[in-house]
Design brief:
Elements: H1 2-107, H2 112-148
Helix pairs in contact: 1-2
């Protein structure tokens, strides 16, 4: 019976030792779980930071593209305005030149001072049309330069 008691005591001691060792394993497991949670949190924070940085970069790229597109649109509008104005000025000058030629031809039917006055008036009208065309070109150039900025 003594051996039996001894065996029981040995078994109880072994169980007690294994329970203590098991508690250490639980404590180690908790430490490992805590470390994994911390590492996981760090990875989540890194991923969130990367996502925010990617969004910031994407927004900047979109803004840059929008600015570039707006500048291209402004230049295209300025070019169209310039071409349209130049065409209109050429039409005005052609009309003024035609009026001058017709008036001078009619002036030839006159004589003396009337003829000279008629030609002078025709020249003055042509000069006024040219001055107006020049002023129009300068105004359009200033407007298109403003659009291109």
């Amino acid at each position: 019976m003594k051996t039996w008691k001894c065996a029981v005591l040995c078994a109880i001691s072994a169980l007690a030792m294994s329970a203590c060792a098991r508690q250490e394993s639980v404590a180690d497991a908790q430490k490992q779980a805590d470390a994994a949670a911390v590492k996981g949190s760090e990875r989540v924070m890194d991923a969130k930071r990367d996502a925010v940085n990617a969004e910031i970069k994407a927004d900047a790229a979109v803004e840059k593209s929008e600015d570039k597109a707006a500048a291209q649109m402004d230049r295209a509008q300025a070019d169209a305005l310039q071409k349209t104005a130049n065409a209109e000025v050429r039409v005005s000058l052609a009309q003024a030149q035609q009026n001058y030629n017709v008036t001078v031809a009619k002036c030839r039917a006159l004589s003396g001072a009337d003829r000279d006055n008629c030609k002078a008036q025709a020249q003055a009208d042509l000069d006024a049309a040219k001055a107006q065309a020049s002023a129009t070109r300068e105004d359009v150039k200033a407007e298109t330069d403003e659009l291109k900025r």
